[in-house]
Design brief:
CATH superfamily of the largest domain: Bira Bifunctional Protein, Domain 2
CATH class of the largest domain: Alpha Beta
Helix content: 40-55%
Order of helices and strands: HEEHEHEEHEHHHHHHEEEEHEHEHEHEEH
Strand content: 15-25%
Strand order of the largest sheet: 1-4-5-10-9-8-6-7
Structural class: alpha/beta
CATH topology of the largest domain: BirA Bifunctional Protein, domain 2
Largest sheet: 8 strands, mixed
Distance between the termini: 50 Å
CATH architecture of the largest domain: 2-Layer Sandwich
Number of domains: 2
Number of helices: 15
Number of strands: 15
Shape: elongated
Amino acid sequence: MDLNPPKGFRDLMPNEALMMEEVSGKIADVFRLFGFCTIDTPMLERLEILRAKDAIGEEGKLIYEIDGGELGLRYDKTVSLARFFANNRDLPLPFKRYSIGKSWRREEPQKLRYREITQADIDILGGESVYADAEVIAAASSALEALGLKYIVKINDRRILDASMEKSGVPKERRGEVLHAIDKLDKIGIDGVSDLVVGITGKEKAETLIGMLSIGGSNEEKEGYVTNSIDKETGKQFAELLDILSGYGLKGNIAVDFSTVRGIDYYTSTAFEFWVESKDVRSAIGGGGRYDRLIGMYGGREINATGTALGLDRILDILEFSKSAKHTYARCVVCTIKAANFAYASKVAKSFREAGINTELNVSNRNIANQLDYANSLNIRFAAIVGDAEQKEGMVKIRDMVNGNESVLGIDDAIALMKR
């Protein structure tokens, strides 16, 4: 019997799961600071919802279907949000929501890529497009800053590539293939992308498109290229977005990158990705963009919509969460010398917990040495030792497991010591 998780899935050890919770909590705190509310949608959706009008394009082949052919595991939470909003049209606009949870993709697992993924999503439905795009990018960037990550935001606009393909004479029915080829740049390099695009458009058209991907210079120079050579109005909106972002005082580098397109078909204009400043990481840790037509696919009018998702699995791997020393939230473990001390020890633990100190109570028959070893193995800072003498006097012996210092104290003084 193989006891390992299925391919592309993984178990988390206590220290890893704890760090996952803490990272999720820090991200959620930032999203709340930006005024995002939260909703909860099912992990299962009807396949007709997941595949509505080919919303996610070729990514649809990665959907996990449930036996029976009616349901599937959600590929991401954006489609679920679109379905939710289309079913709840009376929500006040703009509707700002965050959601942290799992999605599933039946793709080939590799480094930093899993089949079960945890994502932290934020979206804004309604509102002025350029302002909403900036707010989403700023909120996600601030979350990365809260985690201490140095990051780069690569920003593009799909309309730039659309206009370039129009000028190059790429047929409309082949443009989606070109975008998917460009989206593979980080995996197969510029030469690999060039070969794919040549196969789709022919050599002459491909040279123009690949040349645009390789344009260097500052953000301002790239904006100028868009305004003067591609589309004046798109260039103006692009410049406005970058100007608004500068007012947020973000610590990361904002870089215009014409190869950033995102692989999902529902994106319509602005597209962006978050990368960490590391040569060892060749995958984005998050991304998103504008998807103004997605809501309309589920009935009713189209509405401005933008959002992003941060990949917690990749972020945690980058943070080397498997090396985390913290295995428990407990700050103290109450140890007993013998069984007769357990009733008093439980009262001590209750007092500590009521004071807001996360406390574990010994429930084993091990001797005191083994109980202290247990505390050390979980990196619990304090051990509260209870024997006959402490029980008789209503006291507790507090041992600092870091420096070995011991003090016999009353309950209130012990609480003050541990809090200090």
